[in-house]
Amino acid sequence: MLPALERPPLRGDRQINLGTWQGLLLSSQADGKVHGELRPETLSWLEATLSRAGDRPTFIALHHPPFETGAPWLDSSRLQNPEHLFAVLDRHSQVKLVLFGHIHQEFATERQGVTYLGCPSTCIQFLPRAPEFSLEPIGPGFRHLLLYPDGTFRTHIERVEIPLTLDFSAKGY
Q1: Helix (H, G, I), strand (E, B) or coil at 148
Q2: Which is more confidently placed, 87 or 2?
Q3: Does residue 93 have a pLDDT over 90?
Q4: What is the pTM of this model?
Q5: Domain spans of the chain, in order of start
Q6: Contacts of 79-87 spanning 24+ positions with Cβ under 8 A
Q7: Can you tell me the distance from the alpha carbon of 163 to that of 112, in angstroms, rounded to the nearest whole number?
Q8: SS3 label, residue 22
Q9: CA distances from 149 to 55, 58, 113, 117, 157 (A)
Q10: Where would you tag: which of 9, 76, 96, 103 has the fewest CB atoms within 10 A of its CB?
Q11: What is the Cα–Cα distance from 53 to 47, expressed in whole angstroms?
């Protein structure tokens, strides 16, 4: 899959324009690893892009969460260098929102005026705060965002109701 994702329009770090908002998409893939990392060149690109953006409201999206979720089995595969991300974001007050996946569940927290939101999966859901791999018996979902010109936003989770055939004895997916 990686070769397909490295070709335009889905290539590494990307910037998208959505009205008054800009979205910055970061690759947190660590080659051959399940956990995430932000490479120095990604962090430099992020710093430079945010510096040029002025006060334009910005969201960041990456795959791996920069926070622990309370599920030890899942937290070992989170972003391994979140302090480097935080150091860049702390210098740029136009960043309003950071979105991530990987955890297959809803998650929300705030840090230094930035809202961090985990998104559910479009397939299976992991049981929040479970000490070991566990599935949650709810349908696929996605996070809906409403981005307003003044830099505010609203969000909610939508679920897709489908018949579930989950193997609850599975030790991983």
Answers
A1: coil
A2: 87
A3: yes
A4: 0.89
A5: 2-159
A6: 79/28, 79/35, 79/36, 79/37, 79/38, 80/30, 80/35, 80/36, 80/37, 81/37, 81/38, 84/38, 84/43, 85/38, 85/43, 85/46, 86/111, 86/112
A7: 41
A8: strand
A9: 12, 11, 18, 20, 21
A10: 9
A11: 10
Q: What is the pLDDT of residues 124-171, one digit of tens each?
A: 899 999 999 998 999 999 999 999 999 999 999 999 988 878 777 777
Fold of 2-159: Transcription Regulator spoIIAA (3.30.750)
Q: Kindly report, residue by residue over 32-70, the tens digit of the pLDDT.
A: 888 899 999 999 999 999 999 899 999 999 999 999 999
- Which residues make beta-bridge pairs with 62? 100
Q: CB neighbours of 145 closer than 8 A, spacing ≥ 6?
A: 59, 97, 99, 153, 154, 155
Greatest Cα pair distance, the chain, in angstroms, is 51
CB 54 within 8 A of CB 95: no
- Encoded tokens for 147: 């981005």
Q: In 3D, which of 81, 135, 126 has the Cα closest to residue 101?
A: 126
Residue 108's alpha-carbon distances to 33, 79, 111, 117, 162, in angstroms, are: 25, 16, 10, 5, 25
Cβ pair 56, 19 in contact under 8 A: no
What is the pLDDT at residue 78? Answer: 93
For tokens 């992991």, name the residue: 126
- Taking residues 75-85, report their average pLDDT: 94
